[in-house]
Amino acid sequence: MKTGKEEKIGEIIKFLKNIEGIEKVKILSDTEKNELLKIEEKCEKSILMGLMPGINEGVREAISRTFTIAAITNDDFKWPTKGTIRFLYKGEIIGEDVRDQEELLALKNMGNKIIGGMFVLYTEKMNNLGIKNLRNATLVIPPLNLSWNNKVPNADRIIIGSPSPPTDLYIKENIFGEKDVKGKGSILIGFELT
User: Fold this and answer.
1) Which residues are within 8 A (CB) of 114 and not within 5 positions of it... i.e. 6 or more apart?
2) What single string gives the DSSP state of each residue in 91-160?
3) How many angstroms separate the CA atoms of 112 and 123, rounded?
4) pLDDT tens across 43-57, in order?
5) Where are the domains of the chain?
6) CA nearest to 36, candidates 175, 184, 167, 161
């Protein structure tokens, strides 16, 4: 017979499996969470998301919750259209990813710099900041704000993190045993039970 906690977690897993673009979910053990944190910390010290050193707030917060679920996503998963990676100076966004092509083109036409086909550096903010202050800017991967964040049953203080590429690969290959990972991504959902 299932306990109340097991029933609640079962309902959360069922909810997540029904989200478009989520293929598989698994609740993580403390050992798995610790391993993911080690990989993410190593990434933060080197080149986060292929850009520069930074901090993955979303993953750190998701792992810090009592419960963390890893999920494999496919191309149908609805990512936010912007702000999944941010370049911050004293809390102000001076650059961020933008996935909406119309908005990207409009930002480019306004004189902003586009790097890698989707990362916008806001030229006016960068100019106001000055080159020497850029050294004090930080690359941050914030928690994801998705349409279903506050709809997960039995869950409180939900945080959804987007792992860096090495952590993402570890999740797919080592936690889920996926061999063909092309076109797939991953997220971490951290929460407390209500």
Assistant:
1) 104, 107, 108, 120, 121
2) TEEEEEEE--HHHHHHHHHTT-EEETTTEEE-HHHHHHH-HHHHTT-EEE-PPP--TTTTT-TTEEEEEE
3) 5
4) 888 765 555 678 999
5) 4-74+144-193, 82-139
6) 167
pLDDT digit string, tens, across residues 131-159: 777 778 888 999 999 999 999 999 999 99
Average pLDDT over residues 77-91: 91
Q: Is the dihedral of CA 14, 8, 170, 78 positive or negative?
A: positive
Distance CA 6, CA 154 (A): 11
- State the pTM of this model: 0.89
d(CA 32, CA 175) in angstroms, rounded, equals 8
Looking at residue 94, its amino acid is I
Identify whether the C-beta of residue 144 lies closer than 8 Å to the C-beta of residue 82. Answer: no
